[in-house]
Description:
Elements (H helix, E strand, L loop, with lengths): L6 E4 L1 H5 L9 H13 L4 E6 L12 H6 L8 E5 L3 H10 L3 E7 L2 H8 L3 H17 L3 E7 L3 E2 L3 E2 L2 H14 L3 E6 L6 H11 L8 E5 L6 H10 L4 E4 L19 H10 L8 H15 L6 H5 L3
Parallel strand pairs: 1-10, 2-3, 3-4, 4-5, 5-8, 8-9, 9-10
Antiparallel strand pairs: 6-7
Keywords: Lyase, Metal-binding
GO biological process, one term: ketone body biosynthetic process
Family: Belongs to the HMG-CoA lyase family.
Amino acid sequence: MSREFVTLVEMGLRDGLQNEATPVPADVRARWFNALAKTGLNRIEAGSFVSPKWVPQMANTDEVIAGIQRRADLSIEVLTPNQKGLEGALAANADVCAVFTAASESFTQRNINCTIAESIERFRPVAEGAKAAGKRLRAYVSCVVGCPYEGAIKPAQVAPVVEQLLALGADEISLGDTIGVARPKEIHALLDAVLPLLPAEKLALHCHDTRGQAVANIYAALERGIRIFDSAVAGLGGCPYANGATGNVATEDVLYLLDGEGFDTGINLEALAAVGNEICDFLERDNPSRVGKTFRG
């Protein structure tokens, strides 16, 4: 009997590297993208089309994409926060365009200087342009459980944001525990509020491991039928042991869980761990992935 499939969306080259102090050259990022794709990952964020003035780590994302070895089952995904970003993504022929907002008004105001409703309205031309070009539209909702400014976020605050993004035309919505405060009980409460709004196959979970709960939260979501998870090779994006760190959950750790639970991902864990360790060596940093460390010689 065939095993049920779970999709991992690889965040390391975007959500991970944008938090590294030193920018990585585009040709190196393209090489890492191709190495990740060879492990069996077929959805990978290549970067974001934002001004290098604000996020220098994401400069030359078009050059990264130009260096990718394309194949029919490989989805090249990028963040496109505005019209100019969309134009860059379309020129590079990315497959998925992504926009982002939050479930916290304070977080949205502090980060993009507008309300949640205004942020979604700003995305309208991006969504329309992506759809017109035949691209899939992904939408991120940050701070779905907790906010660094407001504290706890109620599920009732998340549901209306999801509804607005669906109305905008989002094909998939990724719920982000941005500061890594969630535990399984909060994940179940969140899904109680959101799952009635859309099919489970259109919903993804983006867990951060700041407090070491990401794998437990992913397991809770698996119990609820969620089959798409965001993760970052080698836990790129911050130290999971520091208070307030971004701490993306490591793809290796998630894959180890999924393999053990009998899910199919199409990803080779040993090959993935080798890429993660190579990236950490290049960045001259320790590998936060507990599973990744076990593959070091």
